[in-house]
Specification:
- The structure holds 2 protein chains of 2 kinds.
- In chain A, 35% of the residues lie in helices and 19% in strands.
- By secondary structure, chain A is an alpha+beta fold.
- In chain A, a hairpin with a 4-residue loop joins strand 17 and strand 18.
- In chain A, helix 9 packs across helix 11 and helix 10 crosses helix 13.
- The N terminus and C terminus of chain A are likely disordered.
- In chain B, the strands form 4 sheets. An 8-stranded antiparallel beta sheet of chain B has the order 13-10-12-11-15-16-14-17, sandwiched between helices.
- In chain B, strand 15 and strand 16 form a beta hairpin.
- Classes of the chains: A alpha+beta, B alpha+beta.
- Chains A and B meet through strand 9, helix 8, helix 9, helix 11 and helix 17 of A and strand 7, helix 6, strand 9, helix 7 and helix 8 of B.
Chain lengths: 504, 361
């Protein structure tokens, strides 16, 4: 590790020269086995790779490479390893925590050309896909078999399956259907020294340690994924959603607990508070109750018989928990309309504030009322509005702090607000990131969640795969040195990267 | 309990510096599983008790030495369950041993395995450090998923202390159906059924008979029964059938003169003729096949590897170690990664040394 770090001179001019020389040297090695179009070195060609979904951090990579076969990735890694070049892998670049933010002295390895669904096995309900395949594409391709790929992160029309593996992506339906880690069987990874390794298998378990679980969510720091075998799930015949209004947020929180307490595992269970409801209703007219302090969307899916029984139970629970209004989607069009508001929550909030900052904390559901009360207090303390959207079923909060970066001091106040909120999540037994990953965004809060020995254990795991610390260094696991710094995601001028993609 | 943890830490620190191994155990109900490990015993049964159980959170946190039966009876009162339906083998089984062995029961193919439901762990690594990973919330992507790595590691990466699980409500309705069919038909049917929106929760084939369990809402199970046909097994008999299968209660699984092989293969693998027609018991929709037969281990492993699976010698004949490697050998770079991980957590190789005999330093 030390050798690599000390490799880079501190002085800026010398640094530029150093990077230039290193770029030339690496490009020469790569062009031995890659076509010229697959090795990008000019600034204008590198521009599209300067950031991922966390666009506040921008950095041109030293060079970018677009291999198209596993054998090419192996060669790229061998070349990079020989020259001690750092490597950042990138899928679609929709990640929200900066996991694919390039390094000035690093190679950016794009897996965009790995966009093929290689093999479908309808009887085994599996698909072998390349990492650049978009999440939603898998479900589209297998729809004729009445199967689908269950994890549905909200960026699913654009995000790639390789990125999903790197982040262990979830989605609205993960309480019932699981996260990426529950829905993949096998990976081909290329190690830092350019060797292909099969992780997992087509059986339900494999000999040795569970490296499949370890790879999932490892944010590109242990290996480069070049193939993914995913499980396919029978498509539910029917889905219906209950939309319930509540006069206060705590009652809505109790209703969530009551649904679970009644032995129901909803296909989706989402909450929005008043500020969020008003923002989306003005934006998409989803028919939300403007008088409600909070609304819950609670979905049932399955066979018509199952859905009928479950929806009746859900409605009864909502009413008993004090819902002031309760509507059940009559048909698919109405179900999608009810969801449209929730799915448009981020852009809708973006319309009512010059900037907003999204938080991704996870808490035990029982702490919800406490956390929302504290959020209100913090909102008053900092003089900043905060809209709450919440994956209520699995305790994943997305408070959106509204601010104006052009007002002096407001960004700093937002940062302090969000830091207090994340600390609060840890305090109530939760975590600083439910689904967006640590990347560079939450690397500082990792210092609060884990102690020195635990972080050192993470580094030991990394060294087991990557002794020279070349794969995505500086992400996800902070060194002591990093712990003093702060990084934040914010949305400037209400404009998000990939603004056309729904996210929540 | 802090005293207990400190005493374990002291022992591991001492073991680490003297490089003298410890053998971690709970109820010793799975001592037949894995290669022989020699060292000073570390009894974890003193570290027992439920730390936190919030049925409405669907989360359970317990100490590793807690008896599995105690946990299940507590969850019974809330109509909840550990969804991976862990085998007990004997009444003394603990939750720590369950996670360490990583073995799941009949529901595994449809609900998930132990590793799918582990949310967090507190461990003492081979250097004696007390470490927390994961947590008590369902979604958590902070740091590497070290918690799931502990599952099936047989205590070779850390001494398990506290364990958090996602739990699920028990299904409202459960029905078991039987079908007369041959092995090939059963494997095909299991896979076809799993591709349809049916509330399957367990499957088994043995001796010309397929047994299928449905779990779900009353209406969902009733509709699936209509669709599938078959003969309904009386509920009490059905419960006995599945718990006996789960716990290896049938004579087939525990034999004095034949070892029991656990064959994990892709579910759609056609019938495997492995020991001149020796009978197999099939579970998990075809993905798990049990073979009680005296066979050449290497020949068997080559056959199983060819179909994309792996073979574990689950029980030696008569419980006497045979000298055959228990776990399917791992080769090449994968072996190197496994060894590196072992070294990362337990550099002096003191935790259950040799028990996982396909990972060597």
């Amino acid at each position: 590790m030390a050798a690599v770090m000390n490799d880079s001179p501190a002085d800026e001019a010398t640094q530029d020269q150093y990077i230039h020389a290193k770029r030339q040297q690496l490009a020469r090695a790569l062009s031995q086995f890659l076509p010229a179009a697959a090795v990008l070195t000019a600034a204008e060609d590198l521009r599209p790779y300067e950031c991922d979904g966390l666009s506040v951090y921008r950095q041109l990579p030293m060079l970018a490479v677009l291999p198209s076969t596993t054998a090419e990735v192996e060669s790229v890694m061998r070349a990079a390893n020989t020259q001690n070049a750092k490597v950042v892998a990138r899928g679609s670049g929709t990640g929200l925590s900066g996991g694919a933010t390039p390094l000035a002295d690093g190679l950016l390895l794009s897996l965009a050309k790995f966009s093929r669904i290689v093999r479908l096995d309808p009887l085994a309900r599996t698909a072998l896909v390349q990492p650049g395949v978009r999440n939603q594409k898998i479900s589209e391709e297998v729809a004729y078999l009445a199967l689908y790929y269950a994890p549905d992160p909200s960026s699913q029309i654009a995000c790639s399956i390789g990125g999903n593996v790197a982040e262990n992506s979830g989605g609205v339906h993960c309480l019932k259907y699981g996260l990426t880690v529950h829905n993949i069987l096998k990976l081909n990874i290329v190690t830092v020294d350019g060797v292909s390794v099969t992780i997992g298998s087509d059986a339900l378990d494999s000999p040795g340690y569970d490296l499949l679980a370890l790879m999932t969510g490892s944010e590109g720091m242990l290996g480069i994924t070049t193939e993914v075998t995913v499980k396919l799930t029978p498509k539910p015949q029917l889905a219906r959603v209950v939309m319930a209004s509540f006069a206060d947020v705590e009652k809505a929180g109790e209703a969530v607990a009551a649904v679970i307490g009644a032995g129901i595992v909803p296909a989706g269970l989402e909450m929005m508070d008043k500020l969020a409801i008003h923002a989306v209703e003005d934006f998409v007219r989803a028919g939300y109750d403007m008088d409600a302090a909070a609304i819950l969307l609670c979905e049932s899916d399955g066979t018509p018989e199952e859905v009928e029984e479950e929806i009746a139970k859900m409605e009864a629970v909502m009413k008993a928990a004090g819902a002031t209004a309760c509507r059940v989607s009559k048909d698919e069009a109405e179900r999608l309309k009810f969801w449209s508001g929730r799915k448009a929550a981020f852009p809708a909030v973006g319309r009512i504030s010059p900037d907003y900052y999204c938080i991704d904390g996870s808490i035990p559901r029982g702490a919800l009322a406490h956390v929302l009360r504290r959020t209100d207090e913090l909102s008053a303390k900092y003089g900043l509005r905060c809209a709450n959207v919440f994956h209520a079923g699995d305790g994943n909060l997305h408070p959106l702090i509204l601010f104006d970066a052009n007002k002096p001091g407001e960004l700093e106040k937002t940062e302090a607000f969000s830091a207090e909120l994340l600390e609060l999540c840890i305090e109530v037994g939760g975590t600083i990131t439910g689904e967006h990953g640590v990347g560079i965004e939450k690397i500082n809060q990792m210092c609060s969640q884990f102690n020195d020995a635990e972080r050192e254990a993470f580094f030991d795991v990394k060294r087991a795969f990557d002794p020279k610390m070349l794969l995505n260094p500086g992400k996800a696991i902070p060194s002591l040195h990093r712990c003093a710094e702060y990084g934040r995601m914010r949305v400037s001028g209400g404009v998000m990267p990939h603004a056309d993609i729904p996210r929540f | 309990m802090d005293t207990f943890i400190r005493s374990v830490q002291d022992r591991i620190v001492a073991a680490h510096s003297s490089k003298s191994p410890v053998v971690i155990h709970g109820g010793n109900t799975k001592s037949f599983y894995g290669a022989k490990s020699i060292g000073e015993a570390l009894d974890m049964r003193g570290y027992a008790g439920v730390i936190d159980y919030q049925p409405r959170e669907l989360v359970l946190t317990v100490r590793a030495g807690t008896p599995l039966a105690e946990i299940e009876s507590l969850m019974d009162q809330e109509s909840q369950m550990l969804p991976f339906e862990p085998p007990h083998f004997a009444t003394a089984a603990t939750i720590g041993g369950t996670v360490a062995a990583g073995l799941s029961g009949p529901r595994r193919a449809y609900a998930g395995a132990v590793r799918d439901f582990v949310l967090g762990t507190r461990i003492i690594n081979g250097k004696g450090e007390d470490l927390h990973f994961g947590g008590r919330v369902i979604k958590n992507v902070a740091g590497y998923d070290v918690s799931r790595l502990m599952v099936g590691a047989l205590g070779t990466l850390g001494v398990l202390l506290d364990l958090s699980f996602k739990v699920l409500p028990k299904p409202a309705s459960e029905v078991t159906l039987r079908f007369e069919m041959d092995e090939a038909t059963a494997i095909r049917c299991f896979n076809e059924w799993a591709g349809q929106p049916l509330p399957l929760s367990a499957s088994c084939w043995e001796d010309g008979c397929a047994t299928l369990r449905l779990s779900g809402t009353n209406a969902g199970v009733a509709a699936a029964m209509q669709k599938l046909g078959g003969a309904e097994m009386p509920p009490i008999e059905a419960q006995k059938f599945w718990s006996s299968l789960r716990d290896h209660g049938q004579d087939y699984f525990v034999s004095m003169d034949k070892p029991l092989w656990r064959l994990s293969v892709p579910a759609t693998t056609p019938p495997l003729d492995l020991a001149s027609g020796a009978a197999q018991v099939i579970e998990w929709g075809g993905a798990l096949r049990w073979l009680a037969a005296d066979v050449d281990a290497q020949v068997l492993r080559e056959q199983i590897q060819r179909v994309g699976g792996h073979a574990t010698m689950m029980r030696a004949a008569g419980g006497v170690a045979s000298g055959v490697r228990v776990f399917h050998p791992i080769g090449g770079k994968l072996a190197e990664l496994n060894a590196n991980l072992k070294r990362a957590f337990d550099p002096a190789n003191v935790l259950n040394r040799g028990r996982l005999d396909n990972v060597s330093l």
